[in-house]
Write a structure and sequence with these properties.
- The protein is built from no helices and 39 strands.
- The protein has strands at 2-4, 8-10, 20-22, 26-31, 35-37, 47-49, 51-56, 63-67, 74-77, 81-83, 97-100, 105-108, 115-117, 123-126, 132-135, 141-142, 146-147, 149-152, 157-160, 164-166, 170-172, 175-178, 181-184, 188-189, 193-196, 201-204, 212-214, 221-224, 230-231, 235-236, 238-241, 247-249, 253-255, 259-261, 265-267, 270-273, 277-279, 283-285, 290-293.
- It is elongated.
Length: 294
């Protein structure tokens, strides 16, 4: 097991079956060619870092950190995860560093902004088909990126402040405020509450079993884009249904501003639209459905 609090820089692969528990300092994997990261040995052991930096020492060359695809290993960062490093494009041509996140779980436990993807030089997160990013700290700022699975399970209220995409499941186990555009192409789940901020947009492509969805603030919009979705029973400001198949309203739903129906919808419950009911598709009131337009 590697333990300590000092700064460590490695130019090669970071792998092996041993443990890592670094409670201070920074561990930097600074590569001149594509290199691997992760044990590839299964879930044990977890590796813990204070600050973890992935950077690129090559000249004008795009390189990748290739995390293990077969290992469900947990990588815990208690400080900051940084992709890219200032100065890596010193010649004026960007030398992006890409973290290919593999099949690992990346646990970000710090407050504030626990992950930084540098825009100059360009840092890139490639979440792939198997990775999970889990924010577990106090009121973290969620880094704008494209994730595969995203878990928010900290304390306080996490904030989404830039365009964020989740290509599989987003699990909200605490409080989250979306102040930007959030796209969840799979399931939006969890026992926590997602609150829409002023002007925010939430695109939902799968199920919406999340316990709390607060969407009453002015000018926020929720758009259902999936196949034959069940519309979550809650109060919306603006609601758009623009998927495939027929969406279903199965519980009491209120729309305070505009409801736009761009694909078929069947209402089997109590629906109030206080503003306009627009759209170019079919709205059907089922046998148990009631529609009130104020």
């Amino acid at each position: 097991t590697l333990i300590g609090t000092g700064n460590i820089t490695v130019a090669g692969n970071v792998n092996g079956s041993g443990g890592i528990n670094l409670t201070g300092g920074s561990f930097e994997q600074r590569i001149a060619s594509n290199k691997g990261f992760g044990t590839g040995q299964g879930a044990t052991p977890s590796w813990t870092f204070n600050n973890l930096i992935f950077s690129n020492s090559a000249t004008d060359t795009s390189l990748s950190i290739l995390a293990s695809n077969t290992s469900p290993q947990n990588i815990i960062i208690t400080g900051n995860l940084q992709i890219g490093k200032s100065g890596d494009d010193a010649t004026g041509v960007g030398s992006p560093t890409t973290l290919e996140a593999g099949g690992l779980t990346w646990t970000l436990s710090n407050t504030g902004t626990p992950m930084t993807i540098l825009s100059s030089p360009q840092g890139v997160l490639s979440a792939g088909s198997f990775s999970t990013f889990s924010y577990t700290g106090l009121s973290p700022a969620i880094t704008p990126a494209t994730y595969k699975d995203l878990i928010i399970n900290g304390s306080g209220t996490a904030t989404i402040g830039g365009a964020t995409v989740v290509n599989a499941t987003m699990t909200v186990s605490s409080a989250v405020t979306n102040n930007s555009t959030l796209t969840v192409t799979g399931a939006l789940s969890g026992a926590g509450t997602l609150t829409q901020g002023f002007g925010a947009t939430l695109n939902i492509g799968g199920t919406s079993s999340i316990t709390g969805l607060t969407a009453t603030v002015s000018t926020n919009t929720i758009i259902y884009t999936g196949a034959s979705q069940a519309i979550k029973a809650t109060t919306y400001d603006s609601l758009t249904i623009n998927g495939s198949g027929t969406a279903t309203i199965g519980g009491a739903t209120i729309v305070n501003a505009t409801m736009t129906v761009s694909s078929p919808v069947t209402n089997n419950s109590f629906l109030i639209v206080s503003g306009a009911l627009n759209g170019i598709s079919t709205f059907t009131n089922g046998a148990t459905g009631s529609l009130n337009i104020d």
